[in-house]
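Hey L., structure's done. Input below.
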Amino acid sequence: MSGQGKNIVVFGSTGQQGSALINALSEYNTNNNNQSTGPNRFTVYALSRSPAAPSSIRLASLSGVKVIEVAKDYMDEPLKALEATGLAKGQIDGVFDVQGYVSEAIELKQAKAIIDAAKEWEVEHFVYSSADFGELDDTKIPPFEAKRQVESYLRSSGVPYTILRPVQFLDNLLPSAPFQMKVSRTVLLRLTFYNHPERKHQLVSCRDIGKFAALAFSDPAKWTGKEVSLAGDSLTREEVEKIYEEVTGKDVELTWSFLARFVKLISPLGPMARFFDDHGYKVDIQQVRRDLPDLEDLRAFLRRYKATY
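Output:
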């Protein structure tokens, strides 16, 4: 760690988790008396393909954040992205990595390349956002198993790491989420819990994933080498819909059942639905709350969303 603070590079900075981490690190700067220098100051290098986009402009306005323009294929060429920060080898205190889903092969290739780049750049702490596996050795969900392979590669790389394993996102329930999330929540709430309608489904907010990643970067001595599952609430399907209606005054927005059935048949949503119904997540939420006292449950999450919109 530099005496002038910590340099953190964020892959996937404009996505839900990356931006949540940047928000949390910026808030950390603000809450530490707006120090311009010092060991508790974060300088965040937010990698962006489109610095002029509204999402990047918002990030650039935050305390301690530098938006770095990178090539469209920067996930495939991460060494070039690290070079673009202007930081030399040994000057990067942390890298956060999260990948949007394209395919298992692409995700695995990109993640390995980013880990290799971090090792070459002598990064001190690598935080990887994976997925919770419900304590199973094989979830039968290809995207999840790809993340498990990334975890194994990261452990063997020699790069100091923290692995975060979030459950499904509360953010996916929102009407502002992309259309594919409307399909996903239709599958969850209408086409999943056939065998075990009583099963509680665990969810977590992206805000809290970002906050936990910030915890890891702020106290690497505590979190390096740890693998942490993250959940903020545990609810049946009926409880999810009831709380949503109570807080927002509306029903959860769903889409056509025939479309959801078709997508479930041809995509990873099918194996996910079977996993949720037959096994489900088993995260100790109270333990997560001990580490993150303001952890959001569904009601608190929806109240924050309602106040914003």
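The two ends are 39 Å apart (CA to CA). The chain has a mean pLDDT of 94.

-- N.
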